[in-house]
């Protein structure tokens, strides 16, 4: 008769029992199709235990038109100013060739500097701001003024105190100077000093590293881990050790520069799939396996998928369950970079693997950094013991780069113990919960106000879209006047129509701080006309209810 | 300030023309130019149309076929330094939708200008030469070609 796996009236009959046995433990059988605002593809409802809601709303068309007009006007004035500079009508502040070398072939092409000279210089005071305190939930800024429109800066000597910090990757609030908290770090500093002066393979492996690696392995639930001194270098030095020529790397569109650099250095073939798009990844996998290497048609030696846990510019979370099922089906390897997600998502802060309720055995290479949630420096790679043993001998970082310094290692140990609860308090768990609460509150309020926010509802990275180049400078400057420090990004770092301000919510932010920031954003949003969203929930539900009743009349 | 930190696009110039709203902005820009020219009382309608056509083609030639390289440093060691913007579009893949759009739009403008100038001889010669300067560099056979070494380096 009918297909036994048919769904009639929303009740799964015969298939129900089979589903229970087929699926691994813990997957809720009630969860059917998720009904969030989903933009990409078919919903694989049975793989996700809770709603996976991501927003990538597009602004109305007039916003894009005005953005291009803004860049156009900037370009025209750029050409005008370049012309005036070339003919001596305006002072040249850029570096110029020496008089004696006028007839030589020029070292640099003028045009490559056009954007920096004419557009970036105008709003340059919003980046590279020196801070002079710990980057906790609030920090102190050194006041900087410019007398010649951002070509040079000078410090007035005044310090702007207690600027609310919405830009630091301080997700769990471990960037702190509390003496009690840093007690063990001070002891280790006095015991070991600061420098290691050696690489891991020579004389740079301390007992602190061994302790830290065991702790990281326990934290993540894997067999073994290895730590490196620099987060960026963890990616760029280890991917070349894992893959080489004849291998295939499938990398997400929006991967971080460290992953891209590591992939390029390895010499493997790189193919890029659309951001978080499982259909695109599956098509690439199928093509790779069916057609093999170009021209020789041999099978690829290895196929490795490079993804990140949370993408720092979009705030989106990787679709891990679907990617893991794909990797198992096509027998590829998975490299997960949890730089922003370790400590920041998951019920107990163990990253996206825990967030989706999956086992860490599903991911072949777990990579992460300690710079974001643990307030330290460095990165780790964790996984099976064979993998980590291989890296201990073959990683470029182990042979040539100096290892992590002991006070930093102790900071990570104490932070990780705090998160795991091994220090005897529930402080770690409280921090993780507070971060989740702060994130949800911040995102909900921003949605209600009508801003366009990108990303997953659970990610502490919140990009707020500004679109027009003029608004980038205006937004950052006005926020500083209100004593709030934000990070803004524009073209060419982002696509041309998608300039944004990126907020990083921290567990150390109190409700009052978030409310201050939200009120400032509200005011600024009205003043700069940033509230482009057409799907925002009304913050006055009672009015909405009224109109609904009227229509039903 | 680095190119492409939020996306792994090596040369953003290749995708600018495909961005949402670019074609509309371009069409509105041409329309605005035409309205401005029409509002100058000294120009009759045929003159305004020919001027629109000529100025549009001049601008298109300068920005798409004369200026080379990118206004920002790209992480690919300058592969696109000697290429014009037209040659950089979509990394040199021919017959993409942006290329088709920017080939057709001067032709449409040419039709309109010919109609409104009532096919007068002087206007015809001006419009046709101007159209040819902007159509010939777009041919796939002229990809990377520099005639007489003009604009080579």
Automatic annotation (TrEMBL), chain A:
Main localization category: endoplasmic reticulum
Biological process according to GO: ceramide biosynthetic process; sphingosine biosynthetic process
Enzyme class: transferase
Domain Aminotransferase class I/classII large, first and last residues per copy: 161-521
Annotated compartments: Endoplasmic reticulum membrane
Its EC number(s): 2.3.1.50
Cofactor(s) the protein requires to work: pyridoxal 5'-phosphate
InterPro entries linked to this entry: Aminotrans_II_pyridoxalP_BS (IPR001917), Aminotransferase_I/II_large (IPR004839), AON_synthase_class-II (IPR050087), PyrdxlP-dep_Trfase (IPR015424), PyrdxlP-dep_Trfase_major (IPR015421), PyrdxlP-dep_Trfase_small (IPR015422)
Gene Ontology cellular-component annotations: endoplasmic reticulum membrane; serine palmitoyltransferase complex
SUPFAM superfamilies: PLP-dependent transferases
Family the entry assigns: Belongs to the class-II pyridoxal-phosphate-dependent aminotransferase family.
Protein name: serine C-palmitoyltransferase
TrEMBL record, chain B:
First-listed, main subcellular location of the protein, grouped into a coarse class: membrane
Chain segments annotated as transmembrane: 23-43, 101-119
Complex formation: Ceramide-sensitive subunit of the serine palmitoyltransferase (SPT) complex, which is also composed of SPTLC1, SPTLC2/3 and SPTSSA/B.
One example of a Gene Ontology biological process annotation: regulation of ceramide biosynthetic process
Transmembrane as UniProt keyword: yes
Signal sequence region: none
Function recorded in the entry: Plays an essential role in the homeostatic regulation of sphingolipid de novo biosynthesis by modulating the activity of the serine palmitoyltransferase (SPT) in response to ceramide levels. When complexed to SPT, the binding of ceramides to its N-terminus stabilizes a conformation that block SPT substrate entry, hence preventing SPT catalytic activity. Through this mechanism, maintains ceramide levels at sufficient concentrations for the production of complex sphingolipids, but which prevents the accumulation of ceramides to levels that trigger apoptosis.
GO cellular component: endoplasmic reticulum membrane
Keywords: Membrane, Transmembrane, Transmembrane helix
A Pfam cross-reference name: ORMDL
Record-given protein name: ORML1 protein
Record's subcellular location: Membrane
Record family assignment: Belongs to the ORM family.
Membrane topology type: Multi-pass membrane protein
UniProt xrefs under InterPro entries: ORMDL (IPR007203)
């Amino acid at each position: 008769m009918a297909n036994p796996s048919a769904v009639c009236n929303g009740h799964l009959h015969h298939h129900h029992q089979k589903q229970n046995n087929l699926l691994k433990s813990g997957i809720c059988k009630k969860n059917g199709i998720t009904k969030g605002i989903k933009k990409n593809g078919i919903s694989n409802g049975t793989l996700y235990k809770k709603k996976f809601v991501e927003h990538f709303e597009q602004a109305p068309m007039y916003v894009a038109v005005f953005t291009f007009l803004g860049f156009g006007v900037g370009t025209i004035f750029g050409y005008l100013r370049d012309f005036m500079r070339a003919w001596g009508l305006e002072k040249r502040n850029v570096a110029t060739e020496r008089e004696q070398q006028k007839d030589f072939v020029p070292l640099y092409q003028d045009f490559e500097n056009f954007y920096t000279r004419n557009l970036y210089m105008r709003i340059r005071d919003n980046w590279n701001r020196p801070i002079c305190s710990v980057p906790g939930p609030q920090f102190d800024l050194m006041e900087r003024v410019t007398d010649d429109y951002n070509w040079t800066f000078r410090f007035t000597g005044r310090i702007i105190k207690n600027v609310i910090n919405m830009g630091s990757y301080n997700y769990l609030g471990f960037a702190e100077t509390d003496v009690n908290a840093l007690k063990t770090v001070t002891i280790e500093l006095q015991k070991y000093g600061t420098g290691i002066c050696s690489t891991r393979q020579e004389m740079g492996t301390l007992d602190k590293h061994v302790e830290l690696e065991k702790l990281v392995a326990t934290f993540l639930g894997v067999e073994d881990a290895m730590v490196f001194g620099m987060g960026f270098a963890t990616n760029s030095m280890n991917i070349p050790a894992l893959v080489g020529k004849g291998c295939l790397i499938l990398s997400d569109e929006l991967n971080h520069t460290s992953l891209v650099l590591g992939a390029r250095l390895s010499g493997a073939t790189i193919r890029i799939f659309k951001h978080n798009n499982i259909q695109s990844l599956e098509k690439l996998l199928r093509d790779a396996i069916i057609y093999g290497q170009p021209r020789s048609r041999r099978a690829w030696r290895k196929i490795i998928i490079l993804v990140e846990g949370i993408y720092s510019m979009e705030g989106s979370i990787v679709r891990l369950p679907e990617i893991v099922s794909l990797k198992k089906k096509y027998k590829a390897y998975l490299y997960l970079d949890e730089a922003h997600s370790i400590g920041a998502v998951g019920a107990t802060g163990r990253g996206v693997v825990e967030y989706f309720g999956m086992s860490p055995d599903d991911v072949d290479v777990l990579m992460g950094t300690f710079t974001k949630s643990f307030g330290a420096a460095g990165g780790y790679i964790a996984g099976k013991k064979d993998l980590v043993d291989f890296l201990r001998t073959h990683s470029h970082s182990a042979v040539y780069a100096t290892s992590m310094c002991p006070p930093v290692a102790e900071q990570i140990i104490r932070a990780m113990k705090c998160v795991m609860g091994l220090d005897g308090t529930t402080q770690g768990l409280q921090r993780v919960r507070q971060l989740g609460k702060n994130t949800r509150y911040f995102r909900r309020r921003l949605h209600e106000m009508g801003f366009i926010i990108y990303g997953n509802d659970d990610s502490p990275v919140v990009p707020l879209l500004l679109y027009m180049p003029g608004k980038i400078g205006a937004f950052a400057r006005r926020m500083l006047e209100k004593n709030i420090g934000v990070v803004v990004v524009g073209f060419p770092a982002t696509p041309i129509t998608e300039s944004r301000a990126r907020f990083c919510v921290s567990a150390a932010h109190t409700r009052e701080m978030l409310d201050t920031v939200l009120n400032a954003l509200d005011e600024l949003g009205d003043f700069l006309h940033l509230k482009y969203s057409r799907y925002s929930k009304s913050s006055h539900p009672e009015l909405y209810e009224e109109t609904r009743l009227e229509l039903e009349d | 300030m680095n190119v492409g930190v939020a996306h792994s696009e090596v040369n953003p110039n290749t995708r600018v023309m495909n961005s949402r709203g670019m074609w509309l902005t371009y069409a509105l820009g041409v329309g605005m130019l035409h309205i401005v020219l029409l509002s100058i009382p000294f120009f009759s309608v045929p003159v305004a149309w020919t001027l629109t056509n000529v100025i549009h083609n001049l601008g298109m030639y300068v920005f798409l076929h004369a200026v080379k390289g990118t206004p920002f440093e790209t992480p690919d060691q300058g592969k696109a330094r000697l290429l014009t913007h037209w040659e950089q579009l979509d990394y040199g893949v021919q017959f993409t939708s942006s290329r088709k759009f920017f080939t057709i739009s001067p032709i449409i403008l040419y039709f309109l200008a010919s109609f409104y100038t009532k096919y007068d001889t002087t206007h015809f010669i001006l419009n046709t030469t101007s159209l040819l300067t902007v159509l010939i560099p777009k041919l796939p056979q002229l990809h990377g070609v520099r005639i007489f070494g003009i604009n080579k380096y």
